Structure formats: structure tokens, C-alpha cells
UniProtKB/TrEMBL annotation:
<dbReference type="Pfam" id="PF01494">
    <property type="entry name" value="FAD_binding_3"/>
</dbReference>
<keyword id="KW-0503">Monooxygenase</keyword>
<keyword id="KW-0560">Oxidoreductase</keyword>
<dbReference type="InterPro" id="IPR050816">
    <property type="entry name" value="Flavin-dep_Halogenase_NPB"/>
</dbReference>
<protein>
    <submittedName>
        <fullName>FAD-dependent monooxygenase</fullName>
    </submittedName>
</protein>
<dbReference type="GO" id="GO:0004497">
    <property type="term" value="F:monooxygenase activity"/>
</dbReference>
<dbReference type="InterPro" id="IPR002938">
    <property type="entry name" value="FAD-bd"/>
</dbReference>
<dbReference type="InterPro" id="IPR036188">
    <property type="entry name" value="FAD/NAD-bd_sf"/>
</dbReference>
<feature type="domain" description="FAD-binding">
    <location>
        <begin position="14"/>
        <end position="135"/>
    </location>
</feature>
Length: 390
């Protein structure tokens, strides 16, 4: 969708955001009442029946959705309320976690495509200009201002169009790829080499199981849960240099390996005709100190700032929360407050420190595979502790 084509002329904005995922769309909507905002996303072919991994949203996100003014719309999208979680983490004895114990409420299992789309629509309705046909971006900083040269797909196969955009504030919300930050010379600090092998399994309507099932394995860890589309997600997180990785891209082998675990043994897809996808999943992101060396007016949010290991199940919350914090920081920056970015980056340092501590505790809680490389890599220096509630 192009709500405002970039054309060939030069345009002036208060804020340009690269990436219209949950973080970028949420930030754009938060800024719009006061500021002229351009939201850029790349051109992508959307396959019929496309699906996206990352469906668990904690109850603590409710207040952020309310602040966005889209909570009612979110509820109307038909996401499923999260049921209990059950884990075989350091032992084969299942440990149950009832979401009623979460003071913020149970949270949801999302229809992820609908969720992302709802945030984008919310931004456009607020008056944000969205261009989601970007093929190439060139970023530069000149005369105290950011310049963005955007090459976009022309409508219906027409020649590409080019637009030049000027703005005092440039935000990288392009996810783990950190497209803007990379182009400006920043490198990603990767915490590990975690990847996720996953499939959306077609299952019988009589599979009424609402629990999130989590199992530690010698190679890594599994989870499985039904999502609102009626399918069941089956996901294995392991290292990219795992010797079994290639073979496990075969649906039969992936399922057979999962079924060795008591909690996953009952998973029975109606057909084996489903693709197994592979995605990078390791935590990591920008070094706040390096970010502070870029010219003023550069910010990063969501996964571009800090991507979480999926065991934390906090990526979407972080996308919404960093959008919220960054909206304040940008408002202050545009009002001339000198340390607005530094204070935002301080907050990000604190978030990362808390996250790394809890992550270490979660992995260190698995001692039964202590000799396996996957677990050794994650437990050096870690201390025992609990599992994040998926
Ligand atoms: C295996 C796995 C499981 C996960 N499970 C969960 C979960 O259960 N719960 C949870 O909360 N989180 C989960 N996450 C994390 C969650 O999906 C992310 O944290 C969230 O999507 C981050 O949102 P974002 O907007 O920062 O980035 P993204 O969602 O990645 O959006 C980035 C946007 O930027 C655009 N973009 C990229 N490059 C460019 C470019 N060059 N030019 C223009 N646009 C660009 C993309 O098209 C996209 O629209 C999981 C992640 C993985 C890998």
C-alpha cells in the first residue's frame, strides 16, 4: 500500500522511520498527532497463506496497546487468550504455569499477520505516510539533517520512482537486519548463533489443547502451541552449526524428533505436507555506546536496538515499549532537550542488562544437558533460576 507516493520531489519530515513492523508502526502512530511522519518499508511479495512465527504476547502489553489507542481494535482481531504453559525443562516431570498467576493477566496467542497489519493500519489512520514499496535506501547526514534517497517499485510494474526525504530524526525500526544502522557503519552485537526451525502444522479441529508446550533437548529447546488460525506451531531452537540442522528441515524428521518428548508426543498433523522454515533467532543488537557516536537525531527501536532470544518471549513487548520510550525521547529532542538520546540509550542499557541476567538464569536452570555444546555455550558464568513463561 502506498498512502503517499514519494514522487521525485524533495519532501521534508519531522521523523522518518525505516521499518513498518510492530515497533516502527507503533512509534509512527505515537508521534503522529504532533509530527509529520514518514514510515518506510521494503517491497515484499506476500505469498497466499503466509504465516509468521512469534505469536506470544504477555499481558503486560495491554497498557501499551491502550496507550496506542488501539486496544479495542486489537481485541476485535480475535487473538486467543493464552492458556497454561507446561515445561519439561530440567527434568521430564512436567511443570505447569497457570497464567492466572501473572499479575498483568494471561496475555495472548496472536494471529501474528493480523497483529502486525493492525499496527500498520493504526499508523496510517493517524495520518502517517506509509511507503511500503522501497527497493533501496541511501542514507546520509548533511547540514545537520538526515537525507534519505528512496528508490521504490513503480505501480503495476512501472519504472521505479525515486524520492528524496529530509528529516532531523531518523529511526531504525528494521528489525534484526538493522538496515539503517548498518548502512551508517554500525555492526550488530550478536549474543549467539541461535536459529529456529519451525513449521505451522495442519491439525484436526478436535485438537483443543491450549497449552504452550516447552521442552529442553540436547540440541536446544522446543515449543509448540495452537495459534488462532487453527494451526499448531512446532519450533526447535538450536545452533546454526548443529550437525543435525540440515536433516531436520525434513518435516518427517523434525516431527519424529519432537515426538520423543512426552509433552510433544501427541502432536499429530493431518498431513506431512508442510514446509519447515529456518530463521535466525539469536539475541543481540546495537551497542548503545556506538549508537551515541552517530550524528544527533538517530534512534533505533525494537529488534534493531535489541533483539531478544525467543525463550524470553518479550520481543513484541519490547517493540511496543521501545516505541513508547523513543516517542518521548524524540519529542524531547525536537523540543531542543540536549540529552534526549543519551537518556533513551541509558534506558536501553538497563533493559539489556536485566534481559541478559534473566536469560543466563533461564539457560543455567537446565543441568541435565550440561555436557552438550548448546547448553555449555549458554551457561558459562550463568546462575540457576527459573524459566521465562512462554
Ligand atoms: C523464532 C522466533 C520466535 C519469536 N517468538 C516471539 C514470541 O512468541 N513473542 C514475542 O513477543 N516475540 C517473539 N519473537 C520476536 C518478535 O517477532 C520480534 O521481536 C518483533 O517482530 C520485533 O518487531 P520489530 O518491529 O522490531 O521488527 P520486525 O518485526 O522484524 O519488523 C521490521 C520491519 O522492517 C522492515 N525492513 C527490514 N529491512 C528493511 C529495509 N532495508 N528497508 C525498509 N524496511 C525494512 C521489514 O520488512 C519489517 O516490516 C520471536 C522471534 C523469532 C525469531
Amino acid at each position: 500500500m502506498i498512502t503517499q507516493p514519494p514522487g521525485r520531489s524533495t519532501a521534508q519530515w519531522d521523523v522518518v522511520i525505516v521499518g513498518a513492523g510492530p515497533a516502527g508502526a507503533a512509534l509512527a502512530r505515537r508521534l503522529r498527532p504532533r509530527h509529520r511522519v514518514l514510515l518506510l518499508d521494503r517491497a515484499r511479495a506476500r505469498a497466499a497463506g503466509a504465516s509468521r512465527i512469534g505469536e506470544s504476547l504477555p499481558g503486560a502489553a495491554r497498557v501499551l496497546l491502550q496507550r496506542q489507542g488501539i486496544y479495542e481494535r486489537f481485541l476485535a482481531q480475535g487473538h486467543a487468550v493464552r492458556g497454561a504453559s507446561v515445561a519439561q525443562w530440567d527434568s521430564d516431570t512436567p511443570a505447569w504455569f497457570d497464567p492466572i498467576r501473572d499479575p498483568h493477566g494471561a496475555g495472548w496467542h496472536l494471529d501474528r499477520l493480523l497483529f502486525d497489519l493492525g499496527l500498520r493500519d493504526g499508523a496510517v489512520e493517524a495520518g502517517v505516510s506509509l511507503v511500503d514499496t522501497v527497493r533501496r535506501l541511501a542514507l546520509s547526514h548533511e547540514g545537520g539533517c538526515w537525507r534519505i534517497d528512496a528508490e521504490c517499485l513503480g505501480p503495476g510494474g512501472a519504472a521505479p520512482s525515486r524520492g528524496v526525504h529530509h528529516t532531523p530524526v531518523l529511526v531504525d525500526a528494521s528489525g534484526r537486519g538493522m538496515a539503517a544502522a548498518r548502512q551508517l557503519g554500525l555492526a550488530r552485537r550478536g549474543h549467539d548463533r541461535l536459529v529456529c526451525l519451525y513449521a505451522h502444522l495442519p491439525v484436526d479441529a478436535d485438537d483443543k489443547d491450549q497449552a504452550t508446550r516447552l521442552c529442553a533437548d540436547a540440541n536446544g529447546w522446543w515449543y509448540s502451541v495452537r495459534v488462532p488460525s487453527g494451526q499448531r506451531v512446532l519450533a526447535l531452537h538450536l545452533d546454526s552449526d548443529d550437525a543435525e540442522l540440515k536433516a531436520l528441515r525434513d518435516p518427517e524428521r523434525l516431527l519424529a524428533k519432537a515426538q520423543r518428548h512426552g509433552l510433544l508426543a501427541g502432536i499429530r498433523p493431518t498431513t506431512m505436507d508442510f514446509p519447515v522454515h529456518l530463521r535466525p533467532a539469536g539475541g543481540g543488537g546495537l551497542d548503545p555506546a556506538a549508537t551515541a557516536t552517530l550524528p544527533d537525531g538517530f534512534f533505533a527501536i525494537g529488534d534493531a536496538m535489541l533483539a531478544f532470544d525467543p525463550i524470553a518471549s518479550q520481543g513484541l513487548f519490547n517493540a511496543l515499549a521501545t516505541a513508547d520510550s523513543c516517542a518521548h525521547a524524540i519529542g524531547r529532542y525536537l523540543d531542543g532537550v540536549g540529552n534526549a538520546r543519551e537518556r533513551y540509550l541509558e534506558e536501553m542499557r538497563a533493559v539489556e542488562a536485566r534481559y541478559c541476567q534473566r536469560l543466563g538464569e533461564t539457560y543455567a536452570a537446565v543441568t541435565r544437558y550440561a555436557r552438550e555444546r548448546f547448553w555449555q555455550r549458554r551457561t558459562a558464568g550463568g546462575a540457576g533460576g527459573g524459566v521465562f513463561a512462554l
